[in-house]
Amino acid sequence: MAQEELRKEETLAMRNRLIGQSCKLFYSEDPVKIVRARGQYLFDENGKRYLDCISNVQHVGHCHPAITKAAAAQMDVLNTNSRFLHDNIVLYADRLAATLPQKLCVFYFVNSGSEANDLALRLAHQYTQHEDVVVLDHAYHGHLMSLIDISPYKFRKLAGQKEWVHVAPLPDTYRGIYREDHPNPGQAYADTVKDLIEDVHKKGRKISAFFAESLPSVGGQIILPQGYFPKVAEYVRSAGGVFVADEVQTGFGRVGHHFWAFQLQGDDFCPDIVTMGKPMGNGHPLACVATTAEIAGAFTANGVEYFNTFGGTPVSCAVGLAVLDVIVEEDLRGNAVRVGAHLKDLLTKLKARHEIIGDVRGVGLFLGIELVIDREKKTPATEAAAHVVKRLKEEDQICVSTDGPWENVLKFKPPMCFGMENAELVVQCIDRILTEHVASSTQHRLLWGFTLEKLDFYLEINNSENIKAVTVNFK
């Protein structure tokens, strides 16, 4: 029996009553009620269409028919846990192995990026027999307790930094300690990790892992400087630790020319552990850890079975296989290269027109626009970024969100079917909003102060376009 659809007001009231208030909505002041989606578009209860620039989880597009068909077909036949022998899990692992460096040849399937990162921590601890972890500033690796502990983005708002967690500077060449004008920022930032490791050793502690997103997202859509990962891996391995690349946000071809974002650091670079999630199942809960035979062997040697009830089920793996097929058949990596380059070029031209745009950065369909009040001081324009997001939603039906430590970076991680016309529309609308924002903020006050005998007064002139008002104020 079909469920009668609630009115938006009823849905919101029930959500406020039944769902934990820490579970936030997009556009909380005026939420959008989405009832269906297709490709890069969302539709509300009135049929209004929104362009989705946010949903990197729906990697090949919302409700892709090939994914839906694969899931339904397998669900109709079998969906057991992975303790029963079945083709799908091994066929899927084999397909994933073909996208990765040869030494990353053992796979553990789980349900979410958080589970994957938690398991990566366990693998690192078991293999190295060390405890301490080095992470990047502003990093976010998941919502489990173990991952909040290694996520400065979270733990600084909660219980604070644990003794075994060590925070390295974010390699941000726009506003970090080493910037675009540095002759070798990759080496310079890597050396900060080397110094950190030396400090750890002086305290009598040992490094288990260096844990980093291949492209920091919550940190502000950061593109890491060349050479950074290989040098960090060298230092970490020399200290007896392993290198973990978190690809939960950026994997599966989002960067275009490469299937994995860590590959941007060079063909010879290979992490010891790679975690993946969000886009993997196109909305289906599917995630994974890939590692070496040596690390997997150490994990097996502890004598404790690893079992995940829903990880690697026949349905999950059927969905995963279908996602890989669509990426190839629809040339979505090629689309990320072409559309991403076009969008970045348009945004760069926009930067030349608007002083408020401090930086445009990104690769493929992973892009960020950093808004600043002052280009020289790089003062974050947080309110302006929120203003742009709000108006894009209300006036243009475009869904964009912000990231970065100051929430001043407009981020773009749309479904990979995002088209040229979508890129052009977004830039056109941002251009209009920023132009109007600057015009409204140019209203300025000219104050003259006078003293006439014992009577103080001043003239206040407000200039706004062609309107001039003169106010005489007596004190």
List the helices and strands and how they pair.
Elements lengths: L7 H11 L15 E5 L2 E4 L4 E4 L12 H11 L11 H11 L8 E5 L2 H16 L3 E5 L8 H4 L3 H4 L9 E4 L16 H18 L4 E7 L14 H11 L3 E5 L26 E4 L10 E5 L1 H8 L13 H16 L2 H22 L3 E7 L2 E9 L4 E2 L1 H15 L1 E2 L1 E3 L5 E4 L7 H22 L2 E9 L2 E10 L2 E8 L1
Parallel strand pairs: 3-14, 5-6, 5-7, 7-8, 8-9
Antiparallel strand pairs: 1-2, 2-3, 4-10, 9-10, 11-12, 12-13, 12-16, 15-16, 17-18, 18-19
Helix pairs in contact: 2-10, 3-10, 4-9, 7-8, 11-13, 12-13
Structural overview:
The longest helix is centred in the last third of the chain and has 22 residues, at about 330-355. Strand 12 (about 365-375) and strand 13 (about 380) form a beta hairpin. This protein is of the alpha/beta class. The protein has a 7-stranded mixed beta sheet, sandwiched between helices. Strands 11, 12, 13, 15 and 16 form a 5-stranded antiparallel beta sheet that branches. The chain is about 35% helix and about 20% strand. The protein contains 13 helices and 19 strands. It comes from Astatotilapia calliptera (Eastern happy). Keywords: Lyase, Pyridoxal phosphate. Belongs to the class-III pyridoxal-phosphate-dependent aminotransferase family.
